[in-house]
Amino acid sequence: MKRLSACVVAAGVLSVTAIPATAHAATGQFHYTHAYTKLQVVLTDPPSGTCIQVTNNGCARNLTDRTATLYPSPACQGEALGTLSAGQSQALAFASVVFSSP
Questions:
Q1: Residue 80 belongs to what H/E stretch?
Q2: pTM tops 0.85
Q3: pLDDT for residue 24
Q4: How many other C-beta atoms are found inside a 10 Å radius of the C-beta of residue 57?
Q5: Beta-carbon contacts of residue 30 (< 8 Å; ≥ 6 apart)
Q6: Other CB atoms closer than 10 Å to residue 39's CB: what's the count?
Q7: Which residue of 4, 14, 26, 71 has the fewest CB atoms within a 10 Å radius of its CB?
Q8: CB of 10 within 8 A of CB of 60?
Q9: Mean pLDDT score across all residues of the chain
Q10: How far is it, in rounded angstroms, from Cα 66 to Cα 56?
Q11: Whole-number percent of the chain with pLDDT over 70
Q12: Measuring CA to CA, how many Å separate 77 from each of 7, 29, 38, 68, 69?
């Protein structure tokens, strides 16, 4: 997998997507830039082990306690583009993300 470098999250309008917390949810937030609206989207306590379709074309920032694996396809298929450990950021276009299970 490629090593991902840090990026700066641009300030802007924040669109919050809340996902109910479960016993297997990542704790924290995952920020990304929506490819079409250019708004910052926040996933709060995203589920672990579940593919989440996103439309990112900017900076992604993983502020959860799990590793986020980024994929080019909307269904978390194919070769992963890379991973973001807790606290890492990356400017990268991707279509889906899955958070590691505990």
A1: none
A2: no
A3: 76
A4: 16
A5: 42, 43, 46, 60, 61, 62, 63, 64, 68, 97, 99
A6: 13
A7: 14
A8: no
A9: 82
A10: 19
A11: 77
A12: 25, 23, 25, 14, 11
The pLDDT of residue 14 is 42
Assigned token pair, 89? 């950021």
Going by the DSSP 8-state scheme, the letter that residue 5 receives in this structure is P
20-70 pLDDT, tens digit per residue, is: 444 578 999 999 998 888 899 999 999 999 999 998 888 899 999 999 999
* DSSP sequence for 21-77: --TTBPPEEEEEEETTT--EEEEESPBBT--EEEEEEEEEEEEESS-EEEESSTTS-
